[in-house]
Amino acid sequence: MAERVDEPSDGGRADVWAELDSRLDRAGWRPTMGDWVELRRFELPWNNSYAVVGNLRDLLYYKLTPAEADLVDLFDGSRTLAEIAVEGAHGIL
């Protein structure tokens, strides 16, 4: 069965698996925040600052660390998800 699926039946068609892989590859995706999403930072003394990202449409809110909020700031559509992951890894190291 694996041999039959791996090889195209007519030889001239595009590879379905390669096309599916390219469409599902999220490394090239450029995330953006919707107009209904808001990020607010709360700078507090004694190193306990935090941020809240809120979905105003669905009324969902998440508390984030300052480092996580810095990554959310990168969701402007100019960077791929892979570039954001590299940027986050550099921030951790």
What would you say this structure looks like, in words?
The model has no long low-confidence stretch (mean pLDDT 83). The relative contact order is 0.15. The protein has one domain. It has helices spanning 2-6, 16-24, 66-73, 81-92; strands at 37-42, 50-55, 60-64. It has a three-stranded antiparallel β-sheet with strand order 1-2-3. The protein is elongated. It is built from four helices and three strands. It is of the alpha+beta class and 93 residues long.
In quaternary terms, these chains amount to single chain
Could you name the ranges where pLDDT drops below 50 across 5 or more consecutive residues?
none
Order of helices and strands: HHEEEHH
Distance separating the two termini: 46 Å
Task: Give average pLDDT, whole number.
Answer: 83
Helix content: 25-40%
- In total, the number of strands is 3
Shape: elongated
Structural class: alpha+beta
How many structural domains in the coordinates?
1
From the alpha carbons, calculate the radius of gyration and give it in angstroms: 20 Å
Strand arrangement across the biggest beta sheet? 1-2-3
List the total number of helices.
4
Q: How would a crystallographer describe the biggest sheet?
A: 3 strands, antiparallel
Query: Which strand-content bin applies to the residues?
Result: 15-25%
